[in-house]
Design a protein that fits this description.
Length: 154
């Protein structure tokens, strides 16, 4: 497990150091996908626009959170920012310094990440809804075009 955590810390350090320029963008994407927005924003909004997508959104929130809770009970994983303080693998107080953000300062088990699971579900529902809307719109457009061309005998 230490091997996994150690490599996780290396990846976090790499992202925090080399992708600092993308901080605003990544933080924005993370906040947009925040599962708590489902109840306050996405579900009411989508339910007005499209009931199927709205219902899908609420099911994703409920089932995703439930699975996350079960997996957290089973895995009971350490969070990187406390693991680096507790592990003995870094000699003489040489533990790496990891930057923390409001969403990472949680006190419960960290694995699997509820934020990552929830955000990917939110993004999946929104992207598939947007894609099917676009494809549907293009299909209607091509049918209209076809009829129009057929009516003119082209
Ligand atoms: O399990 P993680 O990754 O710390 O994420 C949990 C948190 O993720 C956030 O996105 C949710 O808004 C919080 O409600 C939740 O507690």
């Amino acid at each position: 497990m230490d091997f996994l955590h150690r490599n996780g810390v290396l990846i976090i350090q790499h992202l925090q150091k080399d992708y600092r320029a993308y901080y605003t963008f990544l933080n924005f994407m993370s906040n947009v996908g925040d599962p708590r927005n489902i109840f306050f924003i996405y579900f009411p909004l989508w339910f007005q626009l499209n009931q199927t997508v709205g219902t899908k959104m609420i099911w994703v929130a409920v089932i995703g959170d439930w699975f996350n809770l079960i997996f957290k009970w089973i895995l009971f994983g350490d969070r990187p920012y406390w693991w680096v303080q507790e592990t003995q693998i870094y000699p003489n107080h040489s533990s790496p310094c990891l930057e923390q953000f409001p969403t990472t300062c949680e006190t419960g088990p960290g694995s699997p990440s509820g934020h990552a699971m929830g955000s990917s579900c939110v993004w999946y529902v929104m992207v598939t809804a947007a894609l099917s809307h676009t494809v549907c719109g293009m299909d209607k457009f091509s049918i209209t075009l076809h009829r129009h061309a057929g009516g003119r005998g082209l």
